[in-house]
Specification:
Elements (H helix, E strand, L loop, with lengths): L2 H6 L6 E10 L3 H10 L4 E6 L8 E8 L2 E8 L5 H9 L2 E9 L2 H10 L3 E11 L2 E9 L5 E6 L12 E2 L11 E10 L5 H12 L2 E6 L10 E8 L6 E8 L6 H9 L3 E9 L2 H10 L9 H11 L6 H7 L2 E5 L2 E7 L10 E8 L9 H14 L4
Parallel strand pairs: 1-4, 5-8, 10-13, 14-17
Antiparallel strand pairs: 1-5, 2-3, 2-9, 3-4, 6-7, 7-8, 10-14, 11-12, 12-13, 15-16, 16-17
The chain binds fe (ii) ion.
């Protein structure tokens, strides 16, 4: 625990949820097309030279409560371009919605968070927005966004856009969790920071024996704000005979970063069928998985035949069950991927699927020559 935390007690910042997730990418225009046509997002906003923003282009994409912003630089020496050079396409900002950006920023910095941007008021004809930011693992940041007095398109500098493509959403509703990969020995430090500075609680701790295949292992802690609106698992690699998927990520991304976003649906069968029909690739699951899962999980409301046909994984705990599936990485480097998840009571993360899942990931890793 930091000295500040010892002297001033546990903070109680009020985190209202994810505000938006901003990606820094090599070609935002083309990436936005993929997120719209393949993943069912709607283009709702844009910022760039045409709107008075001279150094970048940003596309705002919405689906359900999820907001993604894809940003690319126009100048090779821009920080966004250097970030892309180092990391490839990736998540820069897991922005958090707060009710008081000034107070939250002051509190989290006093309790040990690294300040990146002091609270700033951004204003236009649609109202005002207060934004501050802190730095976390690697080059990842959390903006702290107070937008209760803003009615415009995302932020000042953006204009609203009417989606010009025929729009077919796939039923993604909200961000369930966002997972960090950090270096060996770093998980506890970051877990402590979220607890000390942001007032998060540790919900789960998976040790290396829980998340292990014959070849490799990892450890994970799940941090969440007290109301459970923001869940942030943190992984680190553990010792194993071969290189873990976390190590592959760290090498490919050039350091720690966001490994996956889990997007929640209320109907995973229709969502995954729609995504597959649009060419989204998922990790393949061995047929033996379903023999085991039908016995382990028992009766579910969905058709087991549908789940097996679509490759959806199922896990049950005391509270109920959950359904989940993982995409292949969505850019050239084997870094960021997505999880689609539906919760039927369970608030877990699919611990019963870890082994089956990681063996599937390792088959893909071996095909890339990285195992
Ligand atoms: Fe996940």
């Amino acid at each position: 625990m930091s000295q500040a935390a010892q002297s001033s007690g546990a903070p109680q910042p009020s985190i209202d949820g994810f505000d938006a997730v901003e990606y820094w990418v090599g070609n935002a225009r083309q990436a936005a097309h993929y997120y719209r046509t393949a993943l069912g997002f709607r283009l709702t906003g844009y910022a760039g030279p045409e709107t008075g923003v001279s150094d970048r282009c940003s596309y705002v994409l919405d689906q359900g409560e999820i907001r993604l912003v894809l940003t690319g630089a126009l100048d090779p020496d821009h920080g966004i371009a250097r970030h892309h050079h180092a990391h490839g396409d990736g998540i820069r900002d897991l922005a958090l919605r707060v009710s008081d950006a000034d107070a939250t920023f002051a509190s989290v910095v006093a309790h040990g968070a690294t300040p990146l941007q002091e609270p700033a008021v951004l204003e236009d004809d649609h109202g005002k927005l207060v934004v501050a930011a802190i730095s976390v693992y690697g080059d990842t940041v959390h903006s702290l966004v107070q937008r209760d007095a803003y009615a415009g398109a995302h932020r000042p500098g953006y204009v609203a856009v009417d989606e010009p493509l025929p729009h077919r959403e796939v039923g993604l509703r909200r961000i369930d969790h966002a997972v960090a990969n950090v270096a060996a020995g770093e998980m506890d430090r970051w877990a402590a920071l979220y607890q000390d500075a942001l007032g998060f609680e540790q919900r789960y701790h998976f040790d290396a024996d829980t998340i292990r295949t014959d070849d490799s292992a990892l450890m994970s802690k799940v941090l969440a704000d007290r109301r459970g609106r923001v869940k942030l698992p943190i992984n680190e690699p553990a010792a194993g005979p071969k290189r873990s998927q976390i190590e592959e990520f760290l090498d490919a991304y050039g350091g720690p970063g966001v490994q996956h976003l889990a997007l929640e649906t209320d109907d995973i069968v229709s969502t995954v069928a729609a995504l597959r029909a649009r060419g989204v690739g998922f990790l393949s699951v061995p047929p033996e998985y379903y023999e085991d899962a039908r016995a382990r999980v028992g009766d579910v409301d969905e058709s087991w035949d549908d789940l097996e046909r679509l490759g959806v994984l199922v896990d049950r705990d005391d509270e109920g069950y959950l359904l989940q599936i993982f995409t292949e990485p969505v850019q050239d480097r084997p870094t960021l991927f997505y999880e689609v998840i539906q919760r039927r009571g369970s608030q877990g993360f699919g611990a019963g699927n870890f082994r089956a899942l990681f063996e599937a990931i390792e088959r893909a890793q071996a095909r890339r020559g990285n195992l």
